Amino acid sequence: MLALTTEENIMNTKLDYENNGNDSIDITFFSDGLLEASYTSTSKCDTDPSSTITSTIIFHCALEVRSPQLSYKSSNCQYIFDWHTNETCAKADV
pLDDT 10s digit of each residue in the chain, 94 long? Predict the structure, then answer.
């Protein structure tokens, strides 16, 4: 269970909806130990109804595990999180 900051709780509230199957998730692996997961919702943004909610989590290979941190939040509901974890490290890197 992750401890969420106030800003992260706001994002989670906005994502609380019934999934109609049209959402998308893209996962990209990078050779330098990064993994990026992008989630695009079909839900409309509260502050910009012409946009949908998009969240990207960038997983960084790190020996010291930290909680996810909200690093960017736009007015049209784009969120970027950085998460330092050893779960994305290659076994030889740990």
Answer: 333 333 433 333 333 344 555 788 888 887 676 888 899 998 999 999 999 999 999 999 888 889 999 999 999 999 999 999 888 887 544 4
Query: Which domains occur in the chain, in start order?
Result: 6-88 (2.70.130.10)
Taking the C-alpha atoms of residue 78 and residue 50, their distance in angstroms, rounded to an integer, is 13
Torsion-angle region of residue 6: left (phi > 0), alpha (psi -120 to 50) or beta?
A: alpha
Q: Token pair 């992750």 is at which residue?
A: 2
In the chain, the N- to C-terminal Cα span, in Å, equals: 23
Instruction: Tell me how far apart the alpha carbons of residues 18 and 36 are, in angstroms, rounded to a whole number.
Output: 24
